[in-house]
Amino acid sequence: MRASHLEDFYSFLRFPSVSTDENYSGKLTECAHWLVEKLSGIGLRAELVPTPGHPVVWARNQHREGRRAVLIYGHYDVQPPDPLELWDSPPFEPVLKDGYVFARGATDNKGQILSHILGVQETIEQRRELPVNLHFIIEGEEEIGSGSLGNFLHQNRDALKCDTVVVSDTGMIAPRTPTLSYGLRGVAALELKVTGPKMDLHSGIYGGAVANPATALAQLLATLHDREGRVAIAGFYDRVAPLEDWERKAWQKLPISPDKEMLRETGAPALFGEAGFSTLERIWARPTAEINGIGGGYQGRGTKTVLPSYAMAKLTFRLVPDQKADEIIALAEKHLKKNLPPGVTLEKTAGHHGPWYLTDPHNRFGQAAQRALQKAFNAEVALIREGGSIPIVSDFRNILGVETLLLGLALPGCRAHSPNENFPLENLDAGIRMNKAVLEELAV
Amino acid sequence: MRASHLEDFYSFLRFPSVSTDENYSGKLTECAHWLVEKLSGIGLRAELVPTPGHPVVWARNQHREGRRAVLIYGHYDVQPPDPLELWDSPPFEPVLKDGYVFARGATDNKGQILSHILGVQETIEQRRELPVNLHFIIEGEEEIGSGSLGNFLHQNRDALKCDTVVVSDTGMIAPRTPTLSYGLRGVAALELKVTGPKMDLHSGIYGGAVANPATALAQLLATLHDREGRVAIAGFYDRVAPLEDWERKAWQKLPISPDKEMLRETGAPALFGEAGFSTLERIWARPTAEINGIGGGYQGRGTKTVLPSYAMAKLTFRLVPDQKADEIIALAEKHLKKNLPPGVTLEKTAGHHGPWYLTDPHNRFGQAAQRALQKAFNAEVALIREGGSIPIVSDFRNILGVETLLLGLALPGCRAHSPNENFPLENLDAGIRMNKAVLEELAV
Predict the structure, then answer these.
(1) Which of A290, A303, A267 is nearest to B195 (CA)?
(2) CA distances from residue B141 to A290, B25, B32, B73 in whole angstroms, order as listed
(3) How many angstroms away from the CA of B145 is the closest CA of chain A?
(4) Which helix H or strand E contains A46, and what residues bound it?
(5) Distance in Å, alpha carbon of A219 to nearest chain B alpha carbon
(6) Which end of chain B is more exposed for a tag (fewer CB within 10 A), N or C?
(7) A20 pLDDT exceeds 90?
(8) CA nearest A385: which of A418, A354, A408?
(9) pTM for the full predicted model
């Protein structure tokens, strides 16, 4: 690892580019300027594009007719560092310990996007030019929902025309195991409010004569699943595409122990999920109905003998191919209406939703990515899906009409979003090699 | 109504004797001193008894051998007046409107206890002495749980020896309908916490592989009742004494429309309760299991896609003769343990409990009370139970060994604990007549 690479990494990490807190706005702009300078310094045409939120950094090499065009996406904003007292060292003063750099944003996403920048730097130094027409798009609002990115892509759709997108903002299933994520779950939100009396009532004076909305809500929510963990909404699974054989086999052979790791990471007393599926299948390829929050009545210390006026729950459904968010929300609403206990009313408010994502890892670009990963890590490539949702991937598909290669460099213990976030220098190095290899392979 | 009675009422109401707020401590003591002065002024031996909380006012006439002893209980503390903006006139500046006095404490409990004081005053004025040995016990902590009263009763057990207790702190079922409450429900509290993962998890990354504690809690709470509103805990009804025939008949003949009034008062979309019982039976004579509060995960605006680490619920059971609080809590705990869904753990914390109360309205003192009510109101007496719990009644039974006559003067629209609390002068007058009659009847 060159000393200058480490210096770049530390400089990048020292910006407290916390997008969730408006007080840091100036720091985000400083960080974006640093990126423009860095990208210009390695020979790209870099610019800072203002948005209603934080600026987008856009850098290109000299494009030439007839070459493949690749868009590498990343973000320079980071999560807040709180709670500060749980950090072993200050979050914006990077330190190296046992080969790991500790700082907020080390993994998510500064280390990962920087490895691409440094890979491009090395290629240009060694060969004077890149094998592809390249775009770097590095935004400052990923941690707050990428609100300005869609508009930016729309406005620059023609200039951004490309063959594929490369994103390193996902995980590796284990150290030194190169990982290509080819699928993501979608999400659809629904909020429920069950109302009974017009105000909280004295549970002694009125209890027994009117329905308790918290009880009614519990009874209603209990109808969402059967005893074996299946979602009990009629039609919920109708469009779910079965896992392909090669996927099931590939996942069984992954060099990890998902059940053991899931228990250790979550601290749950036992695993539980839809009957008939493995842990990886449950989180990567099966839809869910989760209660994200529930509330009603008195939640303070001690006892307050109220019969609550209302109780509410926030639900999200994770969706998989080929489910449709609108359809699932409609089925859920129908189910809830049908199962509403007597004596209460129900309000339903559909919230945000984002589609699932699935691409074929065996197509031309997927194969190129696999060759690059194999070359960079000198190990067999894990082909996985992920359980979360990455809305920008759908933006790239819907606005630019291209698929995304998710080549994650985050390790299971990287503590993204948590205190003591870290990134191994080994992965910065591997990321540099991966960038060089993937641009080369995609050029073919 | 004498002008001086109204002046006394206004003076009493002007003290902001809010026991829930420590800033008002001085005002409570001032109010207690005013009572001592008033009670001394009418010829009783009155004293202010300090407690670790607010003082107890204790007043006695000259006791004589061979007479019945009666203890009249009331309280001079009041609920906070908030929210102030909902009052039509300042809560501690009493005003008379259409025969009703509006002020915090007008009904609960200053108007009611004052009618007893004024009744005693008139009897002494007219006859120079009372027909019974009398104790007034007027405390200042009723709205905060009567924490000092039990100790006061214990310490003065011998001096307070009496035949019966009279309390006017309950309701009349309708205007001009004298009401004797002979039963109260008990209460037993149980808090539940269902825990899954050791911290909130990302519902995309983990959802599907571990149990969701909010879902598990909902499923658990849904087992507490059957679809017809019965509590589904095995053994829950085993000790419930059936309603006596005379009660069922008496309640059916009450000059009220309980269902219509319950709907109007609560604003609930429909009534709902245990199958096979009327509204009055459900709230006065049947036990319940109510969720007073439920909470877990994200309850703020919008969506946060967490799989909560835990979810909790606060339960109280209302108990009726001959249920035992400890036994019900044990049965509930057994039920919850048995019905706990997989993948989570359950913590149970039993809270406070208080026994139900039931006395025979047809015994000697009950009959005396009925004659007095009939005489004071010149109307047929309603014999009812109430759904709430009044712990001091059990204190009187357990410490002094006597039953309590609940001769309430509160009207359904009195708005105790709410803005625009009020008490009709008609009831102050009737209360004075009732006091005179009840002491006379109890003396026999």
Answers:
(1) A267
(2) 45, 11, 12, 12
(3) 12
(4) strand A45-49
(5) 5
(6) C
(7) no
(8) A408
(9) 0.90
Task: Return the residue in A231, A294, A320 with the most chain B beta carbons within 10 A, the one to mutate for interface testing.
Answer: A294
β-strands A164-167, A404-406 pairing? parallel
Query: Is A294 close to B311, i.e. CB distance below 8 A?
Result: yes
Least Cα separation, residue B236 to chain A (angstroms): 15
How many Å apart are CA B440 and CA B444, to the nearest integer? 7
- State the amino acid at position A255 in one-letter form: P
d(CA A246, CA A253): 11
Give the pair of three-digit tokens for residue B174.
């309708």
pLDDT tens readout for residues A385-398: 999 988 899 999 99
Closest by Cβ to A290, choosing from B269, B290, B307: B307
As for the ipTM of the complex, it is: 0.90
| Residues of B whose CB is below 8 A from A233 | none
Length of chain B: 444
Q: How far apart are the first and last CA of chain B?
A: 28
The identity of residue B125, as a single letter, is: E
Residue-wise pLDDT tens digits, B81-107: 988 999 999 999 999 999 999 999 999
Contact B293 A291 (CB under 8 A): no
The backbone torsions φ and ψ at residue A317, rounded to the nearest 5 degrees and listed phi first, read -105, 130
Backbone angles phi, psi at B164, to 5 degrees: -160, 160
Beta-carbon contacts of B397 under 8 Å, excluding residues fewer than 6 positions away, are: B357, B403, B404
